[in-house]
Design a protein that fits this description.
By secondary structure, the chain is of the alpha+beta class. It has eleven helices and 13 strands.
Length: 326
């Protein structure tokens, strides 16, 4: 038996430009994606199975999530085992959810990336980065980014990545209560817009990031999808205004929404925000994607391969996450 602990960060879009619709139903995009220090935690255990077939079992702490074959973590495990030719295994995955779901923060994609990364660690990295990226792109548009994380220019449907310098930013994320928007809903609404908004700011944002210019980065935040969402969900507009009124430099909807994030150049008192909105997070920029916290074998014998014993209080801030290169 082997168990690995993985932490998977949330994603925000500093810019999101929507281009032409593809034959596969996706849109081509141009986006600067960024991982932040809001994490889900995965516990992945692999044991022997007497049957030839593999068994995949998904569970977690959030009752709103389907723990079945539709879960991206399940799909990720299934694709990894098939591609690597592994048989007669039972894979158990427990998802400790902290990233809000259906919120434009890529929580499900991040979990899927964590499963690919974790299983590859357990099985001795039998798939190289190129093959992992192919699998990730088959699972979902954001999964390849979530595998590597950091600051990346994402093109095509989001799977083609170009690494950028990591800026130093303070971020506040607010998720509206009881509001969930799927990516499909957001893009369907966008497709019905008679007047599409202007795509802008990505090239200028790249230069601002290279300069590590917080004011300029904040001024260039842009999400083309907002135009399709704000009229139907005015609370998103209210949150943006509230964050700017509190002293943040600028605020924008993250991904397909409804979460909003703001860039702040000073410490903001969050107590008032937390009275109005249930889910408020102060996060920082991180330069990694899904990463290993601890790997242990011979569970009954208690043999750890990590540098120190895993506990809930230590892995959340573990420095062991590597900066995966892509």
């Amino acid at each position: 038996m082997k168990t690995i602990k993985i932490k998977t960060p949330a994603k925000i879009n500093l810019t999101l430009e929507i281009l032409e619709k593809r034959k596969d139903g996706y849109h081509n995009i141009q986006s600067i994606m960024q991982t932040v220090s809001l994490y889900d935690f995965l516990t992945i255990t692999v044991d022997e199975n007497d049957d030839h077939d593999n068994i995949i079992d998904i569970s977690g702490n959030n009752p709103l999530i389907p723990y079945d074959e539709s879960n991206l973590a399940y799909i990720s495990a299934e694709k990894y085992l098939k591609k690597s030719g592994i048989i007669s295994k039972k894979v158990s995955i427990f998802i400790e959810k902290h990233i809000p779901i259906a919120a434009g923060l890529a929580g499900g994609s991040s979990n899927a990336a964590g499963v690919l990364y974790g299983l590859n660690e357990i099985f001795g990295k039998i798939l190289d980065n190129e093959l992992l990226s192919v699998l990730a792109s088959q699972i979902g548009a954001d999964v390849n980014f979530c595998l590597y994380g950091g600051t990346q220019l994402a093109t095509l449907k989001g799977e083609k990545l170009k690494k950028l310098p990591t800026p130093d930013l303070n971020i506040i994320i607010v998720k509206p209560k009881d509001l969930f928007i799927s990516a499909k809903e957001a893009y369907d609404k966008y497709s019905k817009l008679s007047n599409k908004p202007e795509n802008k700011n990505t090239e200028a944002m790249i230069e601002a990031i290279k300069e590590n210019n917080t004011q300029k980065i904040a001024s260039l935040l842009n999400n083309t999808l907002e135009a399709a969402i704000l009229n139907d969900y005015p609370v998103i507009k209210d949150i943006k205004a509230h964050l700017i009124k509190k002293g943040c430099l600028n605020a924008v909807m993250s991904g397909s929404g409804p979460s909003v994030f703001a860039i702040c150049d000073k410490s903001i008192d969050l107590s008032e925000l937390k009275k109005v909105y249930d889910e408020v997070y102060e996060v920082s920029i991180v330069s990694h994607g899904a990463c290993n916290i601890a790997l242990r074998t011979n569970i009954n014998a208690g043999t750890f391969l990590s540098s120190k014993t895993f506990t809930d209080s230590t892995y959340a801030n573990s420095p062991k996450c590597r900066n995966n290169e892509k």
